[in-house]
């Protein structure tokens, strides 16, 4: 069954208008949901909305939204308040900036969509070719809210990404830990690390991976329905190895060779030559 477009509209930059259709790029599996039961009698637990002041359950028609601006203090919000800032759905993605595609931080991407032409594809093809190596940034109003989006060409189509705003993104510098001392990577460490990494290199195909947690959880549920019980043996505690020992043992494991721990613990004191050091040696010669 062919996928259906979830949105139709116009991609605009200046006076250029391109009719487009948007399709989800991912198909998220619905989560395995659970209900709460009373363990003693297996009765499903209900959660009525209860007012502690009036000492009664409250129907949905008597419930309003409110913002807590201080502990225990609220300002009620009506539907009219939300309507004042709700942008109208324009069905237009208005590009307001174009930048190099490599400058788009992957952390900023929230969701991805495929963009295809709606009708005659001439204008779409021109826009797709003109944006090669670039990314267009714009805004679109959908379902009562405004989204920041990016548009870029890939695999013969355009990709649309909804983006996080800058205020939602954390600076990577804030996560950096102070090592306390300069870290010098030795030649032998780097050589072994590259050898280990090279043994794992192959063309990327995410279809070869599956959600083992979801599959295992579903297997337990199916077994319980069938009156069976699944017993999982405890996982073995991993050994803690020194870096050189771990690198050497990893390389031996993927190559199917035995490794002597005493040999793997030998460390080289020869640091990786830097560009500055190389320049000094060349100048001295």
Q: What would your notes on this structure say?
A:
The protein has 285 residues and is of the alpha+beta class. Among the domains are: 7-25 and 86-168, Ku70, Chain: A, Domain 2, CATH 2.40.290.10; 182-201 and 239-275, no CATH class. It has 7 helices and 13 strands. The strands form 4 sheets. The protein has a 7-stranded mixed beta barrel with strand order 1-2-10-13-12-11-9. A two-stranded antiparallel sheet has the order 3-4. The chain has a two-stranded antiparallel ribbon with strand order 5-6. β5 (50-51) and β6 (56-57) form a beta hairpin.
Distance between the termini: 71 Å
Number of helices: 7
SSE arrangement, N to C: EEEEEEEEHEEHEEEHHHHH
The biggest sheet amounts to:
7 strands, mixed, barrel
Rg measurement, Å: 29 Å
Layout: helices, strands, pairs:
Blueprint: E1 7-13, E2 16-24, E3 37-38, E4 43-44, E5 50-51, E6 56-57, E7 65-70, E8 73-77, H1 79-85, E9 92-100, E10 109-117, H2 122-130, E11 134-142, E12 145-154, E13 157-163, H3 187-198, H4 212-225, H5 243-255, H6 261-264, H7 275-284
Parallel strand pairs: 1-9
Antiparallel strand pairs: 1-2, 2-10, 3-4, 5-6, 7-8, 9-11, 10-13, 11-12, 12-13
Helix pairs in contact: 3-5
């Amino acid at each position: 069954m062919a996928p259906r477009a979830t949105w139709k509209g116009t991609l605009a930059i200046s006076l250029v208008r391109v009719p487009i259709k948007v399709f989800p790029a991912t198909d998220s599996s619905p989560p395995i949901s659970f209900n709460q039961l009373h363990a003693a009698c297996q009765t499903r637990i209900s959660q009525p909305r209860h007012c502690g002041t009036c000492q009664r359950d409250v129907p949905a028609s008597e419930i309003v939204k409110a913002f807590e601006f201080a502990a225990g203090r609220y300002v009620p919000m009506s539907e009219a308040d939300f309507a004042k800032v709700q942008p109208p759905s324009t069905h237009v993605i208005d590009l307001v900036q174009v930048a190099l595609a490599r400058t788009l931080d992957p952390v900023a991407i929230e969701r991805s969509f495929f963009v295809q032409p709606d009708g005659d594809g001439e204008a779409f093809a021109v826009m797709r070719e003109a944006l090669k190596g670039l990314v267009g940034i714009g805004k679109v109003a959908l379902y009562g809210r405004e989204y920041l989006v990016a548009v870029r060409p890939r695999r013969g189509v355009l990709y649309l990404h909804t983006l996080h705003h800058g205020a939602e993104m954390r600076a990577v510098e804030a996560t950096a830990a102070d090592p306390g001392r300069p870290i010098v990577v030795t030649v032998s460490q780097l050589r072994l690390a590259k050898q280990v990494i090279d043994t794992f290199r192959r063309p990327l195909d995410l279809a070869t991976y599956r959600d083992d947690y979801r599959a295992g959880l579903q297997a337990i549920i199916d077994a319980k329905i069938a009156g069976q019980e699944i017993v999982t043996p405890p996982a073995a505690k991993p050994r803690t190895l020194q870096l050189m020992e771990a690198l050497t043992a990893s390389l031996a494991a993927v190559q199917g060779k035995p490794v002597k721990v005493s040999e793997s613990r030998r460390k080289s004191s020869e640091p990786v030559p830097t560009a500055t050091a190389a320049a000094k040696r060349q100048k001295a010669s």
